[in-house]
């Protein structure tokens, strides 16, 4: 039997990279379809072979994509029963990918409301803790994020990255590990609702001063002012978003 030539490390890396891209593309395609309702809860996905052929990917790439969706609570695979879409109550709605998929089409107004209610519960309390516990590194991170937001504006990707960094820095400043685990979820909610608000026109107002008031209060160690400023920030952002939802 002819011995196979060993695969070079660079080739292995390219193969792994290609596999990850295929898995990600399939997960993205199916995830969007499930979250949008195109594939409703309870529906069984076509068999592995048929779906892999339809999507022009290998069975292994399709299988790995299903594992990604299962980890997010979107689907469940059982021997003989196949793969079915789970009820929405089982979905990990705070997963950043699910948030992104929800906004890839026309987002559900109820989901947008849920995200803002979550922010209204978490972020004002986090701002209070941040004002009480922030250290010099936290202060530097907040200031750097504000500089980025002012320099780039939230109309740009760089500005939205800075916005996410601001909210991340605020949660980091609480020095509460449980709250910090929400950073990716809060960041995704902030990013996608900001994108949504300006999908057809510029933002109705500049939200940077709202963030500056939060930062100033946290840096000053004024817990009451920090909580109030963050509550106002979230409320105003929700008002702006509802105005966009009301547009014809």
Describe this structure in words.
- There is one protein chain.
- With 248 residues, this protein is mainly alpha-helical.
- The protein has two domains: 82 residues, Orthogonal Bundle (Arc Repressor Mutant, subunit A), CATH 1.10.10; 150 residues, Four Helix Bundle (Hemerythrin (Met), subunit A).
- The protein is built from eleven helices and two strands.
- It has a two-stranded antiparallel sheet.
- A hairpin with a 3-residue loop joins strand 1 and strand 2.
- It starts with 8 loop residues before the first helix and ends with a helix.
DSSP summary, beta strand count: 2
Q: What top-tier CATH class of the largest domain fits best?
A: Mainly Alpha
- What coarse outline follows from CA principal-axis ratios? elongated
CATH superfamily of the largest domain: GntR ligand-binding domain-like
In angstroms, what is the radius of gyration?
22 Å
* Structural domain tally: 2
**Major sheet details:** 2 strands, antiparallel
The portion of residues assigned to helices is 55-70%
Q: What structural class do you assign from the helix and strand content?
A: mainly alpha
Given the structure, what is the number of helices? 11
Main sheet: strand order: 1-2
Stretches where pLDDT falls below 50 for ≥5 residues? 1-17
Q: Name the beta content range.
A: under 5%
Which fold does the CATH topology of the largest domain refer to? Answer: Four Helix Bundle (Hemerythrin (Met), subunit A)
Q: Based on the structure given, which CATH architecture of the largest domain is correct?
A: Up-down Bundle
N-to-C span: 69 Å
């Amino acid at each position: 039997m002819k011995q196979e030539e060993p695969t070079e490390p660079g080739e292995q890396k390219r193969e792994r990279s290609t596999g990850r891209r295929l898995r990600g593309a399939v997960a993205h395609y199916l995830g969007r379809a499930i979250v949008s309702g195109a594939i409703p809860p309870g529906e069984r996905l076509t068999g592995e072979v048929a779906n892999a052929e339809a999507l022009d990917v290998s069975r292994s790439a399709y299988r790995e994509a299903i594992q990604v969706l299962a980890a997010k609570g979107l689907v469940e695979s059982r021997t003989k029963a196949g793969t079915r879409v789970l009820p929405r109550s089982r979905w990990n709605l705070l997963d950043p990918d699910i948030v992104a998929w929800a906004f890839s089409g026309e987002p559900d107004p109820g989901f947008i409301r849920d995200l803002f209610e979550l922010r209204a519960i978490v972020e004002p309390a986090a701002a209070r803790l941040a004002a009480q516990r922030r250290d010099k590194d936290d202060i530097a991170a907040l200031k750097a994020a504000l500089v980025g937001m002012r320099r780039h504006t939230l109309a740009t990707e760089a500005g939205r990255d800075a916005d996410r960094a601001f909210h991340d820095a605020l949660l980091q400043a609480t020095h509460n590990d449980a709250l910090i685990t929400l950073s990716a979820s809060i960041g995704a909610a902030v990013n996608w609702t900001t994108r949504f608000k300006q999908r057809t026109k510029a933002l109705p107002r500049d939200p940077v001063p709202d963030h500056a008031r939060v930062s100033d209060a946290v840096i000053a160690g004024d817990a009451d002012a920090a909580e109030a400023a963050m509550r106002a920030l979230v409320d105003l952002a929700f008002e702006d978003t509802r105005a966009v939802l009301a547009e014809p």
